[in-house]
Design a protein that fits this description.
Order of helices and strands: HEEEHHHEHH
Radius of gyration: 29 Å
Strand content: 15-25%
Helix content: 40-55%
Largest sheet: 4 strands, antiparallel
Distance between the termini: 99 Å
Number of strands: 4
Length: 177
């Protein structure tokens, strides 16, 4: 019986020693390491839809629409005196107007990686610290003036005519006219 108790105490001591050692080793490995942008420690902030009118030859050709998600340092974003949404919107406008060679009618001229990197780098340079770690694209669209006009015309149609077109008549029901 005494051997059984001695063995149990030995097993408990060995287990506690192993757990203590593993916590010590894990603590030393994590000292000085910064968390990776996609692995936690950062806040993810979504923007509202950002709509930028694109001007060519003194007229509006269409609208660039985007929704972005960006990862930020929680401590740094609390220090901002300007709302982060306003800062992000301003940088999108600045990027698109500073790069008039971007043609949204030709998909081959759009470099989304360069767009994300430029937004991130210009915000960080403007703030003076590494605030934004990653810019993710939630939505990107380009609508021409004609597409916007067509959508507006469709919305102005008679709502009763749209309802009749959507709902089939009930079986055995008399015509409404």
């Amino acid at each position: 019986m005494i051997k059984f108790i001695a063995a149990a105490i030995w097993i408990c001591a060995a287990t506690l020693g192993a757990v203590f050692y593993s916590f010590q080793a894990a603590g030393e490995a994590g000292v000085g390491e910064t968390p990776k942008p996609m692995l936690g420690g950062l806040d993810y902030v979504k923007t509202d839809v950002i709509s930028v009118p694109l001007l060519r030859n003194s007229r509006i050709d269409g609208y660039f629409l985007t929704k972005l998600v960006y990862t930020v340092e929680p401590d740094q974003i609390k220090k901002l005196s300007v709302p982060a949404q306003a800062l992000m919107t301003d940088q999108v406008y600045s990027y698109l107007y500073a790069n008039p060679q971007i043609d949204f009618t030709k998909k081959g001229t759009i470099d989304l990686d360069a767009f994300r990197k430029a937004i991130r780098d210009t915000i960080n340079a403007r703030v003076g610290v590494e605030l934004v770690h990653e810019v993710l694209i939630d939505q990107v669209n380009f609508l021409t003036k004609d597409e916007i006009r067509d959508n507006a015309v469709r919305r102005r149609k008679d709502p009763a005519a749209q309802t009749e077109a959507v709902l089939p008549p009930a079986e055995g029901a008399a015509p409404a006219h």
